[in-house]
Amino acid sequence: MSYTLQYGQIWPYLPRLFDGAWIALQIAVLAFCGGLAIGTACAAVKSFGPRWLTRIVNVYVVFFTNTPQLVQIYFLYFALPDTGVLLSSFAAVLIGMTLNAGAYLTEIQRAGFESRRVSEMEAAEVLGFSRLQQIRYVILPHMARVLFPPLSNHFIIMTLGTSMAAVFGVEELTGQAFNINSLTFRSIEIFSVTALFYVALTLAASVLLAAIGRYVFRARTGLI
Fold this sequence. Notes:
It comes from Bosea vaviloviae. Belongs to the binding-protein-dependent transport system permease family. HisMQ subfamily. There is one protein chain. The chain is an all-alpha fold. The protein has a single domain, classed as MetI-like (MetI-like fold). Helices cover 75% and strands 0% of the residues. It is built from 8 helices and no strands. It has helices at 14-48, 51-65, 69-79, 89-114, 118-126, 131-161, 173-184, 187-215. The longest helix has 35 residues, at 14-48. The radius of gyration is 21 Å and the shape is flat.
């Protein structure tokens, strides 16, 4: 069996792959920022909150870290309409990835809360800081520096995870590859080019995050 590579048939579709990469990046950024906000709030609850609220957060974290992300999005997109809640494919993917990221980032950021320096906390108490002021001015700046490398790694993983959006018809990078493949039937060419797009996307994100880590937080991400 012989197969002749014909990348020339793929070039006219490159703009569609760029559009798909842009959508994938939007999903990753929005879901990560949402997950970061959820994770910060839940980590604060687990570190300082009342026991009843901590139990609710624990149930959320256990559920979302012990079920497949694809099943979670399937539930949002296919099961919720039975209750009258209709979500677009983009919204279902975005909400599912945000909730999943929030659960994982809760555990990551809880480690940051626990790494706070006792001497700094004692100094904040002596100065009369409230609990919220301690979190705002003492704990969060310390966490930003300590947690920047693992958070950067999680963002890269989420960027690659946006490919599952294609299952729900979102025309992100993989979704565009499916569409182009159905038009050209050049599977080797289109998916090899798509893989290179993902490599370029994650490398660009790694370079940007590494630059932020070095010049803003004075930390090495280990990504590049």
